[in-house]
Amino acid sequence: MKKTDALIIGAGPTGLFTAHQLKLIGLDCEIVDNLDKIGGQCIELYPDKPIYDIPAVPECTGEELTNNLLNQLKPFDIKFHLSERVEEVKKEDNKWLVKTSGGNSFLTPNVIIAGGVGSFEPRKFPPKECEKFENKSLFYSVKDKNIFKGKTISIFGGGDSALDWAIELSKESHINLIHRRDEFRGAQATVDKMKALVKDGKINLFTKYQIANVHGKQTLESIDIKHDNDEIKNLKTEYVLGFFGLIMQLGPIANWGLNLNKKTIEVDTEKFETNQKGIYAVGDICNYPGKLKLILSGFHEGALAARACFKLARPDEKYRFEFTTTSTNLLKRLGKKE
Amino acid sequence: MAKITYITSDNQTHTVEVQNGLTVMEGAVQNDIPGIDADCGGGMACATCHVYVKDDWFNKIPKKEDGEDDMLDMAFEPKTNSRLSCQIIVSDELDGLEVNIPSKQA
User: For tag attachment on chain A, is the N or C end more exposed, with fewer CB atoms within 10 Å?
Assistant: First the structure.
């Protein structure tokens, strides 16, 4: 079990700056995120889209903002636990015991939820019957491509993931590529490559079709796909892959006994504490009168929550407010002074 | 100002007045109409404000801009009359618009 002064859930811009504030005032922290990379919505939803309302940064993309925040964290040693979802938060004596899907557990007086709109999960196929085959013959990501050798695979989607896998797997498998329209949003070079493979008969392309049903008792045998004009085709297939991007789900947070309002968590505006002592919520996921879902609000909320953490992490010390321009303590922590 | 009718998947009809300049998504969220999540807050980045626009209206409202169809690829059960409601801006011309909300956003 790991002990830390504060555990941050979510490695988006708010989580990152909250970590900065914690380290600056001399507290330890670790960060858990369900995504496989740092940056949250900035990196998953709009890495290339310019943002124009970060104070003192006239223009930057989601990716640039993330990189700048990481640069700002350079003086500090912060442990990230990526591709792990926090499953459980439980009271243990005066602390919180936090368990993740990756088997990590943390004991901490402070848990800061900087979870955006929840954790990113793959978007799934609409038909309910698909669940039966999930992770057996129906997948939303590829972990081991060797299982597909010599098999028939039906791949759904029109973005780079669907196209890249269709191209890669067509070397040693039979591929059906199915997409809801004629246009593909993947990179042009990838689309051209796919179309060449369609011409050579290496990929069977079905456009304006979507999944309608899946058939099979124990193992998947075939799928029905439906055209925009309602015509249904049955395709024999051993595997199905769906690439529809990610969606945010509140997930286990709903079970931690917090006051929820729709998909947000109610907090006070002094400490950004929830109804549970030592659990804070900052950034898009928190709610209070006047809440603005802006990145700049997340920075402010994180700074205040970090100060509140000090009290529970160092009950015998008194927190002193200091400026980075003048404080020897802070400059030492920033590595600017010996 | 336009009267907009939102029809949920269980056939509940909600008709509300929405101010010009707001989006059809905001009209739903501000009036607590269920079924529109709008996770990204109107940034055309999440496809959780997906609606079906009645056929006679689909061709009347301003067309999709670049990127909207890309996001609709990820929506739950998209159809040929699918739109992201955050991209439909309300004006007097939209008075009487009817949209159907899908059974799920994801």
Answer: C
